Amino acid sequence: MNPFSSGTRLRDMIRAIRACKTAAEERAVVRKECAAIRAAINENDQEYRHRNLAKLMFIHMLGYPTHFGQMECLKLIASAGFPEKRIGYLGLMLLLDERQEVLMLVTNSLKQDLNHNNQYIVGLALCALGNICSAEMARDLAPEVERLLQFRDPNIRKKAALCSIRIIKKVPDLAENFINPTASLLKEKHHGVLITGIQLCTDLCKLCPEALEYFRKRCTEGLVKTLKDIANSPYAPEYDIAGITDPFLHIRLLRLLRVLGQGDADASDCMNDILAQVATKTESNKNAGNAILYECVETIMSIEDNGGLRVLAINILGRFLSNRDNNIRYVALNMLMKAMSVDTQAVQRHRATILECVKDSDASIRKRALELVYLLVNETNVKPLTKELIDYLEVSELEFKGDLTAKICSIVEKFSPEKIWYIDQMLKVLSEAGNFVKDDVCHALIVLISNASDLHGYTVRALYRAFQASSEQESLVRVAVWCIGEYGDLLVNNVGMLDIEDPITVTESDAVDVVETAMKRDTSDLTTKAMALIALLKLSSRFPSCSERIREIIVQHKGNFVLELQQRSIEFNSVLEKHKNIRSALVERMPVLDEATFSGRKAGSMALTVSASPASSLKVPNGTAKPLAAPLVDLLDLSSDDAPAPSSSGGDFLQDLLGVDLAPASTPSSTSLATKAGADALLDLLSIGSTPVPSSSPAVDIFSLTEDKKPPVTTTLDGLSSPSAPPPHAASQPAAAPILDLLDGLSSSPPAPVDNGTSPAYPSIVAFESSYLRINFSFTKPTGNLQATEIQATFTNLSQNVYTDFIFQAAVPKFLQLHLDPASGNTLSAGGNESIKQTLRITNSQHGKKSLVMRIRITYKMNGKDMLEEGQINNFPREL
Amino acid sequence: MIRFILLQNRQGKTRLAKYYVPLEDSEKHKVEYEVHRLVVNRDPKFTNFVEFRTHKVIYRRYAGLFFSLCVDITDNELAYLECIHLFVEILDHFFSNVCELDLVFNFHKVYLILDEFILAGEIQETSKRAIIERLGELEKLE
């Protein structure tokens, strides 16, 4: 024997390891053993090879590296005896997996063993193959496994069946070869073979549509009969669990029937009786019976509709939901989620119970219940449900607050019946769990506040109170700071008092205190501090008496280590000291934020396929993004000529600013010399703006009206907090529509000047343009119905070929209703001399809250070739 | 489909780990650590199911040992709970009154038993008697 080999038996080694008192001792023992095993490997010691490998496996299980033993597995597998092979295969499964190259070396041994005349060795090989085979091995060994599906011993047949599952999952092309042998497995009586055959059949159906068709046609009845026999079988001690014969087989059968019945009325019909029998006759006092019922309910829900069965299924779930056993309640909640799509009313009946489950002490149940409540919310029950959830938020565990907050915010945003309710609920959430509220939620809230002009005073006062009560919630602080900056004067003067409010007295200095606190909180992050700085700047003009104090606070940050804050405080200080004449214009209240833009951006991810959004059509004529700056300046100049100074002071700045900043030469005609000084100051601000590209801060704001792909949070926060944001906003808002028109690509019709809302006429838009096709939309609103809009669509052929079979399709989100009238024709002649017209009628149920949005798809034939164009239209005039 | 099966004691020592999906060794250790953390402190009245990454773990405690199966999110939880129990019964029968030490010293046999019960992440045999008989035959070959 090798002198280095410790010669200990496996048992002794385990004992030695267990006797170790410390981790260091254990490591020493393991190191010694590993050294001995390595030595034995080098000596090519055959006698103790399998014992050494067994030791290695134990060492592996303790978490030590054992890769040096991999080749030993292969050697053992290649040896002749069963005990050696058994340890070899076990080592193979434990120490290696399908990704190791070494595994390829074993393919040949596996092939030999699959053909071995000792069926136990065949069993070992099948087991290893089933657990770790790679795609290549699957290809090489599939014929052997297929043959073994018909082996005389059932133990081999069932192993081969499960092995086949692994093979077809690795190489789905091979699935077809297994269809016939599987069909014969389904007729077996041996439970092991039958259950594995059913499993194989289920996986085949999922992977291969032909297999599904085949089994549906030929095997559904047989399987129904098998289930019937099992369900009615007398007591069978071998398979009995809690008085039920082989629940596992029941469940597998129900699962396969579900796959066969889904989407096929005949197959579903065929299994109705047995499903009804299982659903009514199965004992539900033990876990095994409930497992079957649970599976049965899922099958009933998934197969083609049978009203009676579904009532039965929902009733079972109702019983589950009131069960004392948590496991049963958990699966009931799980299944009710699926039932929602089948019968919402039935699930609604259990609302109270489900709501209780949200408060369960078990996190698994809470999570399921919360998901379900989220699905249950609708316009009618949103108020009580939200109240319950927010009340619970106060007492819930810390780790659950994140999930709960996200769901509440989402519910409030989706279903809020009125703005004041939205604001109230969000303030509660912010005060309670502001640290868990996501940035985009905060931003949505700010957008909404900005749009609720009659609630500005109410909101800022409520935020002030909330801040006094809990200033530790980051998001609350941010929203409060933003609102106080914008509406600080309303806070102090108690403007717009609602009946439900208690009057409060807030002095100007109190309001500044809030912002200062936010600024100095250790926990405030950079964004919050930056927002606080801007709020201070704004307050300096709202509260002239505090102006000096504010300047002092701002100056304190001149030496801040964070460049952003340092820069801003220096800039703001300079605004306060040197440019008093422009200050009030500079910090004017933000114009109403555009809800549609915001929601459009939020939905940005879904609009990646936009082929004709203004942003992308822009890129076509200009080639790259960079030269955009010049046309933009022109456009802005133009628009402010057209629409005379939309916001008198801001607009002038903007013109100057953009001109100077983007292309100094392009503003020769500037008439606003009077504000030269202001422009300079702003130029300063802009040129050291927060983004590296010089033209980006104004440009981004304008682009963002049209561009969907920007990540919402960063740009919007930028917009909110960037010092240069207010003026561009001020001007770009009213000018938006003409800009869009122009950008839209040089449309033939001159942009209709915007007439701030007095006239009901809306500018027509180029809804879509590609190199082949242009679609113009013009709008009329029937009198008396604000929600309705009639759109006249005009399709123009831009190519030199005739289009035939022209079909236009459109889709809209749920809050819109769309009706398409027949088109004036389906042939579009070349060169744009003729056009097809089609009328679309839209009803906007969220009129005033949301703008129109539409996805379109156009198909036609050009030179006999099928053409398809798709796009999304986001540039509808806002007030439609 | 079962992704992996773990058998751990209360201290988190792994007594059996069977993976039906390929994972790096480091990942396996992480999974074992996380699953142990998830199940060890749960109240006995709680559900036997915990969501784990994109799957769920069905676990059951027998004395100081936790049997955990990680299965697909769409699988029948109650059935796998029953499955754990059947496995424990088989172990109990095989070792006649199984205890943790049996599993430590005969770990390779535990794997052998498991391979007769579950293969490729699916149940292979539902009859305790059939499995015990088969194990008897295999023992004779050693």
UniProtKB/TrEMBL annotation, chain A:
Q: Where is this region: Disordered?
A: 713-734
State where the protein is found. Cytoplasmic vesicle, Clathrin-coated vesicle membrane; Golgi apparatus
Assign the protein's first listed, main location to one coarse class. membrane
Topology versus the membrane = Peripheral membrane protein
Start and end residues of each GAE domain = 760-877
Keyword annotations for this protein, in alphabetical order, are: Cytoplasmic vesicle, Golgi apparatus, Membrane, Protein transport, Transport
Cellular component terms (Gene Ontology):
AP-1 adaptor complex
Q: What Gene Ontology biological process does one annotation of this record name?
A: vesicle-mediated transport
Which PANTHER family does the record match to this protein?
ADAPTIN, ALPHA/GAMMA/EPSILON
Family, as annotated = Belongs to the adaptor complexes large subunit family.
Function field = Subunit of clathrin-associated adaptor protein complex 1 that plays a role in protein sorting at the trans-Golgi network and early endosomes (TGN/EE). The AP complexes mediate both the recruitment of clathrin to membranes and the recognition of sorting signals within the cytosolic tails of transmembrane cargo molecules.
What is the recorded name of this protein? AP-1 complex subunit gamma
Protein source organism: Punica granatum (Pomegranate)
Gene name linked to the record: LOC116210496
From TrEMBL, chain B:
Keyword flag Protein transport: yes
Q: Name one Pfam family in it.
A: Clat_adaptor_s
Q: Which UniProt keywords apply?
A: Cell membrane, Coated pit, Endocytosis, Membrane, Protein transport, Transport
What family is this protein classified in?
Belongs to the adaptor complexes small subunit family.
Family annotation (CDD domains): AP2_sigma
Q: Which GO terms describe its biological process?
A: endocytosis; intracellular protein transport
This protein's membrane topology, according to the annotation, is: Peripheral membrane protein
A GO CC term assigned to this protein in UniProt = plasma membrane protein complex
Domain AP complex mu/sigma subunit residue range list: 1-141
Decide whether keyword Cell membrane is in the record: yes
Which SUPFAM superfamilies would you find in this protein's record?
Answer: SNARE-like (SSF64356)
Localization recorded for this chain is: Cell membrane; Membrane, Coated pit
What's this protein's name?
AP complex subunit sigma
